[in-house]
């Protein structure tokens, strides 16, 4: 069963260019992973510094493997210094 994920990030406005650079590398590398069906970065149109990652994984197992990838671990380490608040992550399965 496919796993759908929405992750919400709020970055300090002083770091927007750095954040986009970090996201670009994360998205590029994650899309190469086995089981990654969708991995898109969206910037909130009304709230500067607020980004969403829209993810679709072939399975929970594929996503679990993603969590140990160097590009994700490096992103988390680097991004944490620039964020206003903790990342919010919502995971679920399509019901209709």
UniProtKB/TrEMBL annotation:
SUPFAM superfamilies: Dimeric alpha+beta barrel. Residues 3-96 form the ABM domain. One of its GO terms (molecular function) is monooxygenase activity. Pfam families: ABM (PF03992). It comes from the Bacteria. Keywords: Monooxygenase, Oxidoreductase. This is Antibiotic biosynthesis monooxygenase.
